[in-house]
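#onboarding

Welcome to the new folks! Below is a worked example of what a typical request in this channel looks like: someone posts a single protein sequence, and someone else replies with the predicted structure as tokens. Don't worry about understanding the tokens yet, we'll cover that in week two.

Example request:
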Amino acid sequence: MSKATAVENKEIFQAIVIADSHNDNLQPFTSRKPLALLPIANVPLIEYTLESLSRNGVEEVIVFCCNHIEQVKRYVQERQTARCTWSIHMKVSIVSSESCRSIGEAIRDLEARNTIRGNVLLLGVDSVTNADLAALLDEHKRLVKLDRGAVMTVVYKEGLRRMRTGNEVMIAMEPRTRRLLYHQRLAAQEKERNFEVPLELFLGNRDVEVCHGLLDPQIAVCSQAALPLFADNFDFLSRDDFVRGVLINEEILNSRIYVAKLAREEYAMRVNNWQSYQLVSLDVINRWLYPMVPDTAISEFRQQYKHFRNNIYRHGNVRLNRSCELDGDLVVGEESDIREGTYLRQSVVGRGCQIGRNCRIVNSFLMEGAIVGDGTVLNHCIVGEGVKVGEGCTINPGTVLGDGVEIPDRLVVAGLLLQADEPPADEWGAPVQKIADRAYTIPVVDDEDSDSDEEDTKLGQPAMNQPIMIAPLPERYPPSLYEPSDDEADSNPASPVPEDENIFLSEVVESLKRGFSERTNAEYLILEINSSRYAYNMALCEVNYYVVKAILQIMLLQDGVATNTVGTLRRLLEYFGVVFRNYIRDREAMRNCLRAFEDMCSSSETVRAKLPQLVHYLYEEDLIGEEAIIEWYEALEDNALKTILSKLVQWLQESSEEEDEDEED
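Example response:
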């Protein structure tokens, strides 16, 4: 074969990105802007998608757009002109059709254009992942060689037990070949008590593996034969319809679907409603999408954010008053202004936002140009671009303020979806309330009554086909699929060590020892620890405790630890510092850390003898705070330990008093 023929026959690595969700789950944002430009940690969704594809060697991307087409085209063209990272080696083209209202119609349109020339990745612009997509394509090609009827490989990720975001499915597959046998999407509100699986599934297959609660990030690898199946079956409107239709008519169509499950360290999640928007934002902040994290300048060649302790990301050009408190898990955007006395935690502040004095902002996401007045409380809410919230307001969990909404002073907003302009009377088919001159409600179907014959509506209730709001998740849920919750952070001290805790501790020790000896990226150790945490259902306080205990156990195994204990710990933390800071963030976590030191004193004379020096070292390195040390000291029941630590605590208290006097002077 000549070189020219080989080049001609080389398959181009293509990807189809569906730029619309074809639902109203992210209203009011998607009524004025495309889903592709929804910001996650101040970066539009489409940047994550295109950057991920570029990193996996995709050569050509077709972005299919149905709504707000000109905005998407303009944004992509501007980024290509700016020569962002994904534009260097990857061709991106926009294909649009205002008449398409489903994925099926989009695929039929692309099939008619004859633009796909082989195996292709199919995903949504709302699919956020750092998975090895090139490996998925190679695996699909291998399957096609073994089974010419393999039309699709669907990608799933192990989900968290009892976690529901609307992305979960139950499947049955043949374990040896991973051929999909059955597929059922789970209800978002977790109402099912029983599941029906066809009996013939077990009668017709020797081995059947049933997997419940898998996450479906809407990523698949399609053979070229998959597109004609969409074209020939007009009832295939969604990917679920395609999967269901192929499974029912497998023999007639001579087509089969296979399953690929992502590894534990690979991340994949779909932003399909405001709840999953909250989860993915926190996952990005907590570096689960590494290397696509805020401080690595996604799709840019220059770094824009600096990464500080407790996963605080600050742009170089921000104005922060010295008395404002940034508690952790934060992104603070360019030209933002945060005044004195304001407290922020687990939130994103967009470009050019202005936050007044003595505000409290928790688990809230402010888009570009938002203004928050003095003394306002934002709790689990979305604040759109250009929104103005007056002084002394309380914005309660579940509230979404659309672009341009203005909330007057001292108003309490309880879990409403608001838009700036009054909608047409027939747009929602339900009453619309006027909250203020620039704030009108979007009615949402009452999920409690959705199964009844009546079509009653109620403000502020989630539904499958209407916007689903963010809210503090129940105690059994973490706010992120991979990260701890505030409820867990406030839980009791670590419990006695039964079998699961022993196994967890041994796994943490082994992971840390292996990482230390091989000098692997320490951030990967966090992934391993979190995976073990969910495998053994560990509370956050226990994870904090056992991570520190594991580091201390490794310290005691080092040469010369008895004569240079602090130096040994310093050397270990030069490598484990990333892991330590990831878990020991707030005052409660610091007390968990100190309890690990306390308990190690009973089994190690070395730790007991050097305890004041070790604690002082952690204090000097700003790893634990003065308040946590004093609170832990006052709660100690071991009088001998209190005697050993008394001089250190006295020194801390005197230093604090001197600082107070200096400030008064």
